Amino acid sequence: MTNSFRPVLALMLASAAMPAYADEAAMESAAADAGVAGESNEIVVTGLKFDRSLQDTPTSVKVFTAEEIDRQNLISVYDLIDRTANVASTFAESGFNIRGISSTNVSGTGFGDLATVYLDGSPLPREASGGGPLDLWDLDQVEILRGPQSTLQGRNALAGAIILKTTDPSFEWKGKARAMITDADGEYRLAAAVGGPIVPDVLAFRVAGELARGDGLIKNSVTGGDYAKSNSEVVRTKLLFTPFGADGLRIVGSYLYDRHYGNDGRGYTFTDLPNSWKRRTVEANRPTYSKTSTDLFTLDVSLPLGDVFTLSSISSYNHLKTFSTYDGDLRREDEAYGDYSTNQKIFSQEVRLTFDTGNLQGLIGAYYSKHKNPDYLANSTFSLDLDVNLGLTSRVAQFLALPPAQGGAGMDPATALATAQAVRALYPQRVFISSEQLYPFNIETQALFGDASWEITPGLKLLAGFRYDREKQTVRNENAVTLNTVLPDPAFYGQVNPLFGLVVQTVNGLLLSDVQNANSSGPQQTTIYKAFLPKGGVSWEVAPNKTLSVIAQRGYRSGGAGINPGQAYAFTYDPEYTWNYEMSLRTQWLDRRLTLNANAFYIDWSDQQVTVQLSENQYDYETQNAGKSRVWGFEVESDFDVTDALNIYGSVGYANSKFLDFTVQNGQAQDLSGNAFSGAPKWTAAIGFDWRHASGVSVNVNANYRGAQYQGVIEQDQGRDVPARTLVNAKIGYSNDNFGAYLVATNLFNDKYFDYEYENAGRLQALLGEPRMIGLTFEGRF
After folding, report:
1. Helices 392-401 and 413-424 meet at what angle, rounded to 10?
2. What's the rounded Cα separation, in Å, for the pair 575 and 729?
């Protein structure tokens, strides 16, 4: 942990630990004498399918309300991620991890995701994480659930889930608008929302939209322009229908139109140039950008059935289209470039029956989804250095040194090397290869699930849940690989020197054989996976507003099928599972002005899906169930209403990940047991305060810390190669009931950091974090 953050962290921990060492009654008396009001607003968690207060929720969850999003100037989901214990963004905000577990994978493979973002009940595919509908304008609440959510959420939630809930219409006229501009990337945002009754007490509407444009932070020295421009347009419409005489029937329908272009001003840039943090430069002759198009329809229906039961239905249809193109070398040379596209259609239907008898609360439900992506197409062109990548000269020299009985020329080593060098001169420095891969899939999921708590005696509850999940996958893979470089003609050189002709013919055969082996066309495969996912635990209110819970539950990611490109055969792999053992503590102090919550966990992971290289042929690989690992740690979060005007908050998280059984074939067998997950910081922390004066002046200052991490799972003996970073942000301004103006700053002390750095074609490139950004925000509301 960096020394610069230790005082901040120590202050936060001291605040969080205060109740353990002070006389609570004396503190409550002091608070009362100071004129502190008694009770804070209760936070309700909705992402667990049954509304519960945060203090009654043993699941580790961080909740951001609309008020917090506004006060802290939070723009996208990644702003929330960086402020949450044991959650961190990865690869320049194109992914995230929860408790050290990447949202996509930790071992380089796997068909499904490990964590999913849900928007108004609809799961968003992983492509949305890098440029989809993740902006926070007009959101009512965001919940980040840590730990397996497979029991209630199903597939792709082994590590956790992020639940986004947009603002519903109301029968009162309400409206708001916002204008923002920032200096470094030239970004501006214009947003508005308005809603009210169409038919009083029967039909209401809400429309919200946001327009954003930005020049980005990277310049292209070849074209002289901006290389990472971004823009987005988002429009959301919602209708609320509560018909007369329907005994509480509530219907909410919504449509989201979302278009995102670019990478939000971030991308790889050269870091081997002077002052590369401030002057971010590439020399690309091809563009790099992503286009994401989302059309999302949802229908949320609820109907009370007496005083005990409520029937709910959530239907969603999401049409997500993406197209991305990239310059893989960022230089004038065309050594690596390509594009890929998807056209995904996702339908889901969930029906739930919730019940509340007082002592017994819970739900039972059924789920169905169909995820189709018939046009997953990837095109790439890349080049290989014949010596650096393929070792051509040394391989030819070894061949020539072999005795004639083994097919060689029987040359002495010096002559063989000289001849090999002469043959090498007949070839270009690099050869170019193109690949076109089509990977259509169709996933159909059916599930039954339930969750309940039973208060068997005052203050003591039994917790139980289950999910039976059945998943049907239909996949196909086609890979067409072409050698673009014209090779020397062995017949021509054979006329000059028969030995040269033989060697050229042999070398050409090796290159063409590698390319031919990479071509594959696998038959369509259908696989079915079934899983039973139980959950059980106990919750004990040891004292008023102080509850201790223990839970064990099973997490799950389904298996899959694929094609080995090197041998052109189909393979399948099995699901992977986790057992998560968790203890939670929920406490409130000082007449509920101070909240201190904590979770400790241990995750036992088995049958982990890993990529296995079967031979020296770079295309001879497949996915197998070959790994085991474990993760343990804790989260502590506190929130303190010191006075009606001052609130301070903080959190700290620790996640220790380790592979217990993980062997990869990287030219030779390599045992990675004992290594940590990549992109998994051990420590994360956040702290901040919010002060609002009666005059309308307000100040919010917050800081968040992400510990050092490894870029990959191999070669970790040199220490964590992504250094720790601390970001300090502020929002200062004035507001009244109808207007607000603010000065905002992110990364106030201009902490220089990166998410990933590597050497590419002899140049050092990195995903640099954002520098200090200063901006202005103007708001209006009625």
Report:
1. 140
2. 42
Which DSSP letter does residue 472 get? E
User: Which amino acid belongs to residue 53?
Assistant: S
Concatenated DSSP letters of 645-675: SEEEEEEEEEEEEEEEE-EEESSSEEE-TTP
CA 224 to chain centre: 33
Residues 6+ apart with CB under 8 A from 521: 477, 478, 479, 568
H/E stretch holding 521:
strand 520-521
pLDDT category at 204 given cuts 50, 70, 90 is very high
Total count of residues recorded for the chain: 782
What does the domain layout of the chain look like in residue ranges?
6-383+438-477+522-781, 390-426+485-510
> Distance of CA 117 to CAs 78, 133, 152, 183, 560, Å?
12, 10, 14, 30, 21
Task: Quote the CA–CA distance of 750 and 235 in Å, as a whole number.
Answer: 34
Q: 710: which residues sit within 8 A by CB, 6+ positions away?
A: 675, 676, 677, 678, 679, 680, 716, 720, 721, 722
Say yes or no to pLDDT of 27 above 50.
no
Position of tokens 């440029």? 131
Q: CATH number of the domain at 6-383+438-477+522-781, please? A: 2.40.170.20
For residue 521, give both structure tokens.
Answer: 């066309």
Judged by phi (left if over 0) then psi (alpha if -120 to 50, else beta), residue 156 lies in left
Q: How far is CA 666 from CA 107, 165, 608, 614, 615, in A?
A: 14, 44, 18, 9, 9
* Residue recorded with tokens 């509920």: 592
**Secondary structure percentages of the chain, helix, strand, coil, to 5:** 15, 55, 35
**Strand, helix or coil for residue 17:** helix
- Under DSSP, is residue 511 helix (H, G, I), strand (E, B) or coil? helix
Which neighbouring-strand residues pair with 778? 179, 741
CB 110 within 8 A of CB 557: yes
Summarised one tens digit per residue, pLDDT across range 655-697 is 999 999 888 766 567 788 899 998 999 999 999 999 999 999 9
For the record, the structure tokens of 674 come out as: 């004992």
* DSSP output for 672-719: -TTPPPTT--SEEEEEEEEEE-TTSEEEEEEEEEE--B-SSSS--TT-
What would the mean pLDDT of 188-193 be, rounded to a whole number? 97
**pTM for the complete prediction?**
0.88
The model's pLDDT over 623-650, given as tens digits with 9 standing for 90+, comes to 888 789 999 999 999 999 999 999 999 9
Gap between the Cα atoms of 468 and 479, Å rounded: 35
Helix axis angle for 413-424 and 498-518, nearest 10°, is: 70
Rounded to the nearest 10 degrees, the angle between the axes of helix 498-518 and helix 392-401 is 130
d(CA 302, CA 640): 35
pLDDT for residue 20 is more than 60:
no
Q: Kindly report the CA angle at 167 between 162 and 168, in degrees rounded to 5?
A: 120
Q: How far is it, in rounded angstroms, from Cα 653 to Cα 632?
A: 11
Structure tokens at 633: 């740690």
